[in-house]
Structures are given as structure tokens and as C-alpha cells.
Design a protein that fits this description.
By secondary structure, the protein is an alpha/beta fold. It has helices at residues 9-22, 44-52, 56-59, 73-81, 100-105, 121-128, 142-145, 160-170, 177-187, 192-210; strands at residues 30-35, 62-67, 88-92, 108-111, 133-136, 152-155. Helix 2 (44-52) runs parallel beside helix 4 and helix 6 (121-128) crosses helix 9 (177-187).
Length: 217
């Protein structure tokens, strides 16, 4: 359900600079957003380790936004401070009506789940806001929503090296109006209304095929 969001370009123009200024993120920085529980199965530590592997020129341009809470927060804060340090903001849990400002402040979303992720709805949320997405191949929506070089990149689950390479590939996609348009177009077919229509269609199809045949005496 995207009704709580302010996801269009007008909202982006209004919210992006305000939110980045509040977080003290300069215009030359790329903000990578992680949205979800700070737990081992979601792999937020893999994201930080992959960024640390980047060439200095790329690494020093990156800021990470952790949107959510969980048992790994203290460990992640410590890891972010270790050399080479990565600027990281821990924003805690946010109500759905507050999320759009952070999606617009970011340049891409990362979902580095290390265990099977049935779908990954945060990817839908990000694409609605025009954000390209980095997802591990354990994320169920990857084949449906991620077109490499267009709406994001897919990397090998648990591999910091594969993720680092994917970050290098995705950075040129960010900040392009055509990328944001592609992301919104890609996710436009994935709405609650269309999901409900699909379920209803499947149900009607099954009922038609299971009607008992008539027999005449």
C-alpha cells in the first residue's frame, strides 16, 4: 500500500534537500539506504564491509542511512567507525508516513539479505520513490523487479566482493531522472489492487476447472 508515501518528483524536489541538510549530507555524497531490521539475516554488516572494500575515491563519497532498529545496532556503529570509517546515520524505526523523506534523501537502496527473503517489500517502496536497488540473489523479488543496469543490480548472497562490484556498477545510475522513471514504471504493475485482481482471477480459474462433470442416466 503506497498511499502513505509522497513518492513523486514534486515530493522529491521538496523533501530531498531538506532531509539531507538535516542529516548534514553534502550534495557530492551518495547516500545508501538500508531499510529493515538490523539483524544478521538482513546482512547490514555485509553492506558496511563491502563499502570498506571500495576504492578510496568511491568509498569517501558514500554515506549509509540505516532505517530500522535491531540487535546489531551497536555492532554496526562500531564497525562503521573502524578504519576506513564509513559515515553512517542510525535513524531508528520510523512510521510509514515518515519514510518518504529518507527515500528521497537517498540515492539507492541496499537489501543484502543472507537468508531467503520471500519478496522484499522495501524494494517496492524504494522503486516507487525512484531509487535503484542493490539486492542479494536471496531476495525473492530480484527476478521480477531488478533489471541490471536499469533498475538496480543483483549480487551474490553473502559476498562482500560481489556487493562491492555491484555498488560500482550502480553508482552511475543514481541521480538520473531517467533511472527514477524506469524504477517507477517497473514497479507500477505491483499494486495491492492488481495483486487482488490476480488472486481473484486465479480463484475463478480453479473453480471453473474443478466443477464436476454432469452425468446423464
Amino acid at each position: 500500500d503506497t498511499t502513505p508515501f509522497q513518492s513523486d518528483e514534486q515530493a522529491r524536489a521538496r523533501l530531498r534537500d531538506l532531509t539531507r541538510a538535516a542529516l548534514q549530507i553534502s550534495v557530492d555524497k551518495k547516500a545508501v539506504l538500508f531499510s529493515g531490521k538490523l539483524s544478521g539475516r538482513k546482512g547490514p554488516d555485509i553492506l558496511l564491509r563491502a563499502i570498506k572494500q571500495l576504492p578510496a575515491e568511491a568509498r569517501e563519497r558514500i554515506v549509509v542511512l540505516f532505517l530500522g532498529s535491531g540487535e546489531l545496532q551497536d555492532a554496526l556503529q562500531s564497525l562503521a567507525r573502524q578504519t576506513p570509517a564509513i559515515p553512517a546515520h542510525f535513524l531508528g524505526f520510523q512510521n510509514q508516513t515518515q519514510l518518504s523523506q529518507y527515500y528521497h534523501a537517498a540515492d539507492l537502496l541496499a537489501l543484502p539479505s543472507v537468508q531467503s527473503e520471500t519478496w522484499g517489500l522495501v524494494v517496492n517502496d524504494a522503486l516507487h520513490h525512484g531509487l535503484p536497488c542493490l539486492v542479494s540473489d536471496a531476495v525473492g523479488c530480484a527476478p521480477d523487479l531488478i533489471e541490471p543496469g536499469k533498475t538496480g543490480e543483483v549480487f551474490e548472497t553473502g559476498s562482500t566482493e560481489s556487493l562491492a562490484q555491484a555498488i560500482c556498477r550502480i553508482l552511475p545510475l543514481t541521480e538520473r531522472a531517467e533511472t527514477r522513471a524506469r524504477c517507477r514504471e517497473k514497479v507500477s504493475a505491483y499494486t495491492t489492487e492488481k495483486a487482488a485482481a490476480g488472486i481473484a482471477q486465479a480463484f475463478r480459474s480453479i473453480v471453473r476447472h474443478e466443477q464436476p462433470a454432469l452425468h446423464c442416466a
